[in-house]
Amino acid sequence: MKTIQIKAEQFFELLRLKDTPMWEIFAQMIDGEEKEIVFLDNEDKVLFNYVLPSNKEKLEEDRKEFSKQFSEKLANFN
């Protein structure tokens, strides 16, 4: 499995500037091989990682699960 390291702050700033969803970028990276995406802070410490699936169907499942979990976490803050 290939590992891709991404500086989180710059990545999310670029997404914001281009008004592009993270999942759209992930979809463009799919090539039939799973990849581990490692998000790093500015000091190269691992913040979190995500295993990019080998197909868009699994990516869509991941997106839905992420959205569900994110919504639940937001509801717990209120």
What's the number of structural domains?
Answer: 1
Could you name the ranges where pLDDT drops below 50 across 5 or more consecutive residues? none
How many strands, what sense, and barrel or not for the largest sheet?
Answer: 3 strands, mixed
- Number of contiguous helices: 3
- Order of adjacent strands in the largest pleated sheet: 1-2-3
Helix-and-strand structural type:
alpha+beta
Strand-residue proportion: 15-25%
Structural Rg: 13 Å
Overall residue-averaged pLDDT value? 93
Shape: globular
One letter per element, helices H and strands E, the order comes to EHHEEH
Total beta-strand segments: 3
Helicity, as a percent range: 40-55%
Distance between the termini: 39 Å
Key features?
3 helices, 24% strand, alpha+beta, 3 strands, 78 residues
Give your account of this protein's structure.
With 78 residues, this protein is an alpha+beta fold. It has one domain. Helix content is 53%, strand content 24%. The protein has a 3-stranded mixed beta sheet with strand order 1-2-3.
